[in-house]
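2024-03-11 09:14:02 INFO queue: dequeued item Transcriptional regulator, len=198
2024-03-11 09:14:02 INFO validating residues
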Amino acid sequence: MISPELLEKYGALKKAFDKNEIVFEEGNLPTYYYQIIAGEVKMSNYNDEGREFIQGIFYKEQSFGEPPLFLNQKYPANAIAVEECEVFMLSKSNFMKLLEENPAISLKIIENLAQRLYYKSVMAAEISTHEPEHRVLKLIDHGIAYFNFQKDKNGYLINFTRQQIGDLTGLRVETVIRAIKALEKKGELKIINRKVYR
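2024-03-11 09:14:37 INFO prediction written
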């Protein structure tokens, strides 16, 4: 999103995180802008029964955790490395200075936040009113548009695990598996070597 050169010009540091390492914790106040160089990060929290709900999954060149940074509010979720990753960390004061001095970047950040807000609104409606198959398909279609899933001769490779689909849609993994099989029978999805394609 923001070029590495510009981030480094404003003093961003690179930090490596191991798989399952916490980038920031729910309840802490934000002090950095984060942008992924390589790898994958999820933002999630847990209910009283210990069930995880994934707020979002972020990939290379995507940023995460900005709303609390702008609002000076505590993080509503944990950010955890899904796999080994490297992340730019830019202090809040330098990030605000970067935005003030680069209005085109500010517009990109606003567009990105609007996209996420739109996704949350759509998914909130889907989770509260629709059947599992519909929820799964809506998430997959959003993933194709937003996460730039790769396309090959089989279609778009859906880069979510069954567990991640469940955690993103509020469904149990068993329900996700049944929904994917039903969608395959209807011709909406393909399953090739256990991988899901749209």
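2024-03-11 09:14:37 INFO annotate: The mean pLDDT is 91.
2024-03-11 09:14:38 INFO item closed
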